[in-house]
């Protein structure tokens, strides 16, 4: 039997579980269609004249790649007219993006990192799009949406997902009812359900961290990585492998596929005190997905999804993946607090 399409999966979620509203289904299908267009642009590479950087910087102070801006525009254009959104927010935009008055407004807020892993674009390594869906606050109807309406903890997400532009283009999604994966059928343009119940193994022997930052790490992170490197003779009693793609989407996708722990911890540098990754459109959606797949996601001590945001682009430390490993790192942080 042919693999289910994304639409069929969402209609079934809407019909059987009551988990997905018709508007949310339209939103997810629209984002998925935009990711197809981004995948197409990314796939052209040098032939599409989309590689390289612009002279501009984004709100993060990062040089913008042509594909960063193009991906952002694709997502804005795709989602403005549908009537399912009240507003949008993006890593690439300093302030929120309101729906133009010529279009109807809906009840959802969409946040996204349009192209995560930009440093890998020009060297042909996997990159991706991350998105998160919240409901606009009830008291927002009848007034203009403001940034403060986006500042909701990750537990309030109604959907989250990512597209990974790698050897295959895949869409991984949760609507709060487990995690599923769709592979893009390039011949028909359909997203086909290929992974119908993604689960993260509770144990692993593989960690992902940027080792070049070791001298800046806080003690609990040093302790854990040191124990991993000690291998079979060490306290963890097994040899560990290491991976670091430097695209969160690719590293998280590997962990969803075969287990592992991903770490971008806060560190002792002034620039690292809050961490590098952004809470609202990187850590929260990925944490929702990881938890729905049976994993754990913390900032070092606390559950990421419980964090009360204070700013749209705030950063956070991230440790996520296989339950046993992440809970060990959490234990080390708590022991350090007590000493
Ligand atoms: P570093 C990409 O720029 C990103 O935001 C994440 O996707 C990735 O995990 C991390 O930064 C890589 O950071 O310091 O290793 O280049």
Automatic annotation (TrEMBL):
Report the catalytic activity: beta-D-fructose 1,6-bisphosphate + H2O = beta-D-fructose 6-phosphate + phosphate
| Residue numbers binding Mg(2+) 1 | 91, 113, 115
InterPro entries listed in its UniProt record = FBPase_C_dom (IPR044015), FBPase_class-1 (IPR000146), FBPase_N (IPR033391), FBPtase (IPR028343)
Q: Where does substrate bind?
A: 116-119, 210, 276
Which domain of life, per UniProt? Bacteria
Report the subcellular localization: Cytoplasm
Keyword terms, alphabetized: Carbohydrate metabolism, Cytoplasm, Hydrolase, Magnesium, Metal-binding
Residues in domain Fructose-1-6-bisphosphatase class I N-terminal? 5-195
By sequence similarity, the record places it as follows: Belongs to the FBPase class 1 family.
Q: What is this protein called?
A: Fructose-1,6-bisphosphatase class 1
Name the species this protein comes from: Yanghanlia caeni
Q: What is the lineage of its organism?
A: Bacteria, Pseudomonadati, Pseudomonadota, Betaproteobacteria, Burkholderiales
- What is the gene name? fbp
